[in-house]
Amino acid sequence: xxxxxxxxxxxxxxxxxxxxxxxxxxxxxxxxxxxxxxxxxxxxxxxxxxxxxxxxxxxxxxxxxxxxxxxxxxxxxxxxxxxxxxxxxxxxxx
Length: 94
Prior knowledge:
alpha+beta, 6-stranded mixed β-sheet, 2 helices
């Protein structure tokens, strides 16, 4: 998929959701004065890792978490949701 002139690779993420996340991530990268060559979206449990391969740079990574069914950055969560994320345990942990 191409979003705002940038190639986006993704798997196991709905294409509309992937496009929205990629578009927002691309805007943030460009706002910092950098130009992405491509963006990778990789699901990792309740998170989606967004990685930008920048032109003339090895990469920038941001993690997005799924909390109560919505994807969001940890920095955008209120204190209660941040505490919920910190207290999470894998299903096989005792």
